[in-house]
Design a protein that fits this description.
Blueprint (H helix, E strand, L loop, with lengths): L4 H7 L9 H16 L30 H5 L5 E2 L2 E2 L7
């Protein structure tokens, strides 16, 4: 398989120096070869009944900081809200 690093770099908007293309082509080829050599998994993965996973209980922490403490870190606040640049006309 031929991997066109120049094309990938263009699509990803990456700037790669000319002397680095060969290195990246080899590394990308190694990644592709590794993925191609992964074993196929035909059967569903099952959980071990003798060793079940124990999940932590979700608990939200709501009283760690006050609103005023959080707003003190904001660069600009107006009427109790964060001021951000306009993104939609």
């Amino acid at each position: 398989m031929n991997i066109d690093i120049r094309h990938i770099a263009k699509l990803a908007r990456l700037r790669i120096e000319d002397d680095q293309f060969e290195k990246f082509e080899k590394e990308m080829q190694n990644i592709v070869d590794m993925v191609e050599n992964l074993p196929d998994i035909d059967e569903e993965l099952a959980l071990d009944e003798n060793d079940p996973m124990t999940l932590r209980e979700d608990c939200a922490v709501t009283d760690k900081y006050t609103r005023q403490e959080l707003m003190a870190n904001a660069p600009q606040v107006k009427a109790g809200c964060l001021v951000v640049p306009k993104t939609v006309e």
